[in-house]
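Re: your question about Thermosome subunit

S., sorry for the slow reply, the queue was backed up all week. Below is exactly what I fed in.
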Amino acid sequence: MFIMSEDSQRTQGRDAQSSNIMAGKAVAESVRTTLGPRGMDKMLVDSGGDVVITNDGATILNEMDIEHPAAQMIVEVSDSQEEEVGDGTTTAAVLAGNLLGEAEDLIEQDVHATTIVEGYHEAAEIALEAIDEQVNEADVDDEILRQVAESSMTGKGTGGLTAASLAETVVEAIRHVDTDAGVARDNVTVHTQIGASSNATELVPGIVVDEDPAHDGMPSEVEDASIAVLDVELDVRTGDVDAEYAIDSIDQLNAAIDAEEGELEGYAETVAESGADVVFTTEDVADRVANALANEGVLVFEGLGDSDARQVASATGARRVGDLDDLEESDFGSADRIHTETYGDDDLAFVEGGAAAETVTVFVRGGTEHIVDELERAIGDALDVVATALESGEVVPGAGATEISIADKIREEAAGIEGRKQLAVTAFADAVDIVPRTLAANTGRDPIDVLVDLRAAHESEGRAGLITKGDEVTIDDPFEHGVVDPADVKREAVESATEAATMIARIDDVIAAE
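Result:
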């Protein structure tokens, strides 16, 4: 009796568990060497020949062409970590992979998957308690936020800039959007521009739009600007029906030309008389309208994408208008200054100050596309973790110190757990050790020796991490060296990795349709 299609493939029992665990471990292993300040980069080349060079875990996993469904779950762990807290994606993926590796060993010892799942969840609760115990009691001030940003970017591609100098810009940006209602993270954008050194990266108090004026005669700078954002085509209207008109005389031709001229002049007059100094529109602007508005000193940008139009409207306080007859002064946004700059073949519009100052832009420069792309990723992660730390007010030691504390507490609590579940709890602690072990390996140190020294220092001092300063690698208190992470990054990594590992470990039957 056939229940499924003859073309279906089914894998059951240990074979299914082994296949899924192997796939999860392989994905985790692919990003393990990128972890920490001495982590290596990956070069990813797609089928079209496009190249991405990065050590960002989420980017690597998303660029990889992964088909195995269990491996996809590890990618989802990284995506979840990125979406929730913005950093720690590699840590989460590596932890999930090693939880699977430990689960595989337990399964081979005839420990049931349900027992492993129960033990892992209990260990995760202990891990969260350990994280709470490691939270720094000091208030999260600008200095700590700078340390959070620098820790996030250390080891990532930052061009000619040091992580310390970029951290100042990141903290300034987040402080700018810190309100009584919380951190408006969406009000910080990152705009990249190839050309010049990464040292030219700066914070713009407003937004940057990749557009040039609609006419060369328009002003390149407008101060105290009244801004209109339109979804209106300032050109001769055309019908939806494909129709032809017969003109029998020169008078009819002149009348048609006069009507067209009148329509265009009407557009220009309406805009000029509205009082708008600057116009952004998602539609086209006829050359004659642009010329007339240039003569009136109005700066116009045409053909904006919908996202750019939304950004301009949001940043300046303007209301988008879909009919020119409805344009009123109350629809205008404002900015202290709008100016255009040329970078190579690109023209950019800077909208600064006034209502636009509620939004800030990190204007990233770099010599090549690969440099600015990696800078954008590094700064984006740093912005996220600084916002997370500022909102939660909780930071923990980095450099593997929190993971050493987690593993130590889990092993201590495991002694009071009865039955085979104790094996799973202890295995969880062993899996957490992968973080300091990997940090050690990536610095060229022996992982076992470093792990022993870290545990000893933790027992005697209460906090110990692997500190990397230049060529020097020491074991010390990360707080003393400014190596800190938001507590929520560690919590999210533990929770998401545990969920993925336990889900995969429980699968004992895989049915695939051809």
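The longest helix spans residues 250-274. The chain has 16 helices and 20 strands.

Happy to talk it through on Thursday.
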